[in-house]
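#structure-requests
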Amino acid sequence: MAKERIIVTAMDLFSQHGIKSVSMDDIARAMSISKRTLYEFFNDKETLLIEGMQYNKNRFNKILTRLEKSAPTAVDVILLCYMEMMKRPRWYHQRFYEDLKKYPKALQHKEEEKNEFIPKCKQLFARGVREGVFRDDVNFEIVALLAKDQAKMLHPSKTFSNHSNSEVYNTVLFTFLRGICTDEGRNILNRYAIKLSYDLK
């Protein structure tokens, strides 16, 4: 579908270069279409940005909903969702978040998205506590806020230049989960670590 391909292309460009430095001309050129065709689908760049953010949110929610129904535990849900998203990762440059402040409607959309994400996280963590895979002595509201804020690191800084993005994210995710898991949860975590060739020791 043409509109979907435009959204994916635009979000790839925004994530790599920031929003402000990517023009509608750049997007049209990358798509090998005319700018006029682009404007047939989107009134302006902010509209395209908002639809791109909604597209990514819908993609994530579909994966999460499917896994919540099929995965045996909350730990499995998180790790399977992560593995699914890493099949086509998008590494966001810090400039993307800085530029977002200049697009008020898109920024509001991002805040609304964040407000929806926190309750979902807390529900998943509560499920994990009931299942005995997450500890019951953790303030999961703080954990949920940390999980959401971590998205801003989707393009690791130069500090991690000696390591691949996936290596950085495997380390962050497994260390994060290890801290909130029970022994049973850590056993599940270890099995996924083997799948991802990640050493937890």
